[in-house]
Write a structure and sequence with these properties.
By secondary structure, the protein is of the alpha+beta class. It contains four helices and eight strands; from the N terminus they run αααββββαββββ. The protein has helices spanning 5-28, 35-53, 55-65, 103-120; strands at 70-73, 76-79, 84-87, 96-99, 125-129, 134-139, 142-152, 155-164. The chain has a six-stranded antiparallel sheet with strand order 3-4-8-7-6-5. A two-stranded antiparallel sheet has the order 1-2.
Length: 168
Amino acid sequence: MPNSLSYLFMSLFVAFIFVIYICSLILSKKLLNSKKNTIVITSSFIILQLYFWNNDFNDFTKSIVFFDSYYKCEQWNVPLPKRTVLQGSSNHCSSFYRTYIKEDEFFTFYQTELAKQKLQGAISDFIAIGTSKGFVVYRDDELISITYKCLRNNYYQIKFSYQINQAT
């Protein structure tokens, strides 16, 4: 499914341009002379359509080229592992991210990053949940959980859950 309705219009526009290009080559009888151009244009068209219509390919491409670097919520920023892509909306503090790192890399990355933030005074404390399932971060009167979940092969999800601590 497309991520945006504009993808439908863009896909139709690109398909229309592709058909016009092929028709012009056929009418000018230069199709045999321009095989390299046709191969490049056709493969570019297929890759562009995969990017628009296949969410897995879209996320994979974004994780290499347009990855997210930080999770931001109010005045708290925490780095994200490399090759991490936001899933959904970024206008609230409980976000889902897709990442391509393994569980042990996730656990090691956040163990060191949260320890740095604790030394800098950005967070009060943090606790590991289980053996590499995630972390609970205490920050003043806020409680933030960072969980890691394998949804399917090569598809890992990082979820940030933000809530106000009711114990105060």
